[in-house]
Amino acid sequence: MPGEYDDREKRAAAYRLVRFLTGYDRHRLIADPDLEVSPDETKLRRCLEQLRRHAPVEYITGEAFFFGRSFLVTPDVLIPRPETEELTERILSDCRGRKGMRVADFCTGSGCIAVTLALELEEAEVTGLDISLPALRIARQNAERLNARTTFRQADALRLPAPVPAYDLIVSNPPYVLEREKAEMRPNVLEHEPHTALFVPDDDPLRFYDAIGHYAFRALRPGGRLYFEINETCGTACARLLEQTGFTDVERLIDLFGKERFIRCRRPLEPV
Question: Is the pLDDT of residue 23 over 80?
């Protein structure tokens, strides 16, 4: 398997491919180590050729797991990351016990955040927004497959209309990888995942946080919360931007890898 994977990733990818090729999952293979499998040779050769071209295993199988659920993925959407799952877990922890929340997920991509919140938050009304029509098609398919009551619509996060207070929570995992960081990226990401969902200009790294933050300040009800996944190098600047926008309780949060990866803040209860 290509050198961009570490040993843990290689094992996980191998199990995904075997499941895709044979229908046998990891638990069956471990329980029956002498099990003989005979994958279709044409399908196997096609998979090996895609691996040689650094194609992510998730795109080969058309499937990625997020919050214990299977999501459809294609090169039109980013592959869900553990960090994004952690962001979703933090939101659910903060909102435990609340019913009927109105939620917006900007730059929704595959819909993994929007669909998960719709399934995990009781009676929530969740809208996922993205500029990409192909991504929205995938998101809608995921909502249908998982029976999530989620609405998806097209919107350019950099050109949002003036809102009225309507949401209890807004979340976004927008493009945040700097152009100069391309040299450090693995080929399986750089050569296959959609660049419009990954990169921002080096001279304007906060463009999405600025646009979504200003929108959210007016779109959130008093006391409503805003959550972002961020580039670890931009935490201080992003927090300052949100404070200047008028948000309170601005917190920079560390992910499981020890990186500053999230920001959480709140619209004040009193008008600003």
Answer: no
